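In this supplementary section we document a worked example of the pipeline. Step one takes a protein sequence of length 130 as its only input; no multiple sequence alignment statistics are reported here. Step two produces a three-dimensional model, which step three serialises into structure tokens for compact storage. The input and output of this example are shown verbatim.
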Amino acid sequence: MSVLAEALEVMHKTGERCDEAELYRLKGQLTLQQFQVSSSKFQVTNPQPPIPNLQAEAETCFLKAIEIAQRQQAKSWELRASTSLARLWQSQGKQHAARNMLSEIYNWFTEGFDTKDLQEAKVLLEELKH
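The serialised model returned by step three reads:
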């Protein structure tokens, strides 16, 4: 997280924003990892998660990444952020919203279906059908 914070600081200082969406997606991913570690440790002694807002913080990062990618017309970054958000929503029982959001960006693509990002999105879309 400290390296990511440093990268965001450099981005703000230099104004170089080509990777901004991906930086916020990564921040969301790292925040989710903190939530998962905190939750698993906390469940040993107490059934309530210690920091329930970490999922909300991760969701905010993913939504910001999507918004930035859309503004920059960076469809690959948008796909990655949408896939991350869809996974989070899936874990929260929001399959319908996750599927609708992810399918919208996935269906924009007309080629490159052998890339890792599009393959992951396709697998997740299949999971969200059930």
